Amino acid sequence: MLRLVAACPASCVVCTKDVTLCHQLTYIVAAPVTTRVLIITDGYLSSIQSTNLSLLFNLALLSLSRNDIEDVQEDALHGLPKLRTLLLGHNHLPSAALSERTFGGLRGLRVLVLSNNALCTVRGAWFRHTRGLTRLQLDGNQIANVTAASFGGSRLHSLRHLDLSNNFISYIGKDAFRPLPQLQEVDLSRNQLAHLPDVFTPLKQLTLLSLDKNLWSCTCDLHPLARFLRNYLKSSAHTLRNAPDLSCQPPSPGAAARSLLRLSDSNCDSKATSLTLATKDRSPLLPGQDVALLTVLGFAGAVGLTCLGLVIFNWKLQKDKTNEHTSENLCCRTFDEPPCAHEARNYHAEGYCNCHLTQENEIKVMSIVGSRKETPLLQENSHQATLASESTALDESFRNLKEKERGEDSTFFCLDGRLPQSGCSEPPGNTASFNEAGLLARCCPKRAEKLRN
């Protein structure tokens, strides 16, 4: 708890009814009620509490710089209705130490200095009740992004000077400065800006702009800003600080730097265009969540591969069944296949197999049979010709039997699992063919015996 001291300590340089100036204190001195200026620097206050300044209602300037302040109570400044300037620079104030109520009672505040603290973000709610603020200094902090929410709802319609230099700003939203229509001076030097949209066109009162000491990249994303700057400098009332040093680096290493003001559609690097996105706070994954996610993805991939394999297997199975069904329905025997073997193969075939030799083939086969005793065949084809003649002679005998002996009982059976043949009656003039073929004795022994008798 900080103590209040009635007497002016020895470390105070000035102690009058209007001004009190002290340094290296661990407390806030109890200055007179008539004090209008209170300056306490290079001390060790660590915190500003509500009881420290409650009696200084005439105070117009309060400077508590360089005091290692880490916290400000919400109502610590509410008893200062006449305060115009508040200097809290070079302390250790984080963003969490400030709230909407911190500056809520300072309706007459004109200058607020929060330079060189530990602020990571800027919130418009901090300035909701400081409508008369004309200068805001946020330089030397750890601010990384300036978005529409940074000054949205702040009601800083009178703000003229904004200092955001010497931060870590890499992103500025397109509408970030729209709630600040009266801005005349903006300092964004010494940041990490590589790309920046044209955020300054809505600022009709802008007369001083500082953009040097950034990491500008010579890409086409920067062209809108370069076009604004060229038009901005056409007026003698506008000042672009350190304009000759305002250059951008090309993406390829070793290339010469180019002037940002000369960047255009024709000479900007379109291949390396990239957008800088605002960093959003995201809660980290819990321990084990990444492993669980990988497990789920792996299981889903295995299931997908299994389903794909089943689909391919089913397709092949259906294809094989179709081929099998097609082969089962083939009833016509080959040229060199014996009749009984052909009938056994087609035992399960449905319908009547109307397999006849074509006229051309029949002429060829009959010519071979007729000339068998006169013209010897080549040795290498003798066996195939014999089989062909036997099959043809048998088929011709069967056709003649069907036409001439329809009334006879011509049905017989091939033994040992052979199928019924369509006729084994003796056709006139075809006995020689049956004997030559040698098939009648094998398939129809009784009929062959009758013919020999």
TrEMBL record:
<keyword id="KW-1133">Transmembrane helix</keyword>
<dbReference type="InterPro" id="IPR032675">
    <property type="entry name" value="LRR_dom_sf"/>
</dbReference>
<keyword id="KW-0433">Leucine-rich repeat</keyword>
<keyword id="KW-0812">Transmembrane</keyword>
<dbReference type="InterPro" id="IPR001611">
    <property type="entry name" value="Leu-rich_rpt"/>
</dbReference>
<dbReference type="GO" id="GO:0005886">
    <property type="term" value="C:plasma membrane"/>
</dbReference>
<feature type="transmembrane region" description="Helical">
    <location>
        <begin position="291"/>
        <end position="313"/>
    </location>
</feature>
<dbReference type="Pfam" id="PF13855">
    <property type="entry name" value="LRR_8"/>
</dbReference>
<keyword id="KW-0677">Repeat</keyword>
<dbReference type="InterPro" id="IPR050541">
    <property type="entry name" value="LRR_TM_domain-containing"/>
</dbReference>
<dbReference type="InterPro" id="IPR003591">
    <property type="entry name" value="Leu-rich_rpt_typical-subtyp"/>
</dbReference>
<protein>
    <recommendedName>
        <fullName>Leucine rich repeat containing 53</fullName>
    </recommendedName>
</protein>
<keyword id="KW-0472">Membrane</keyword>
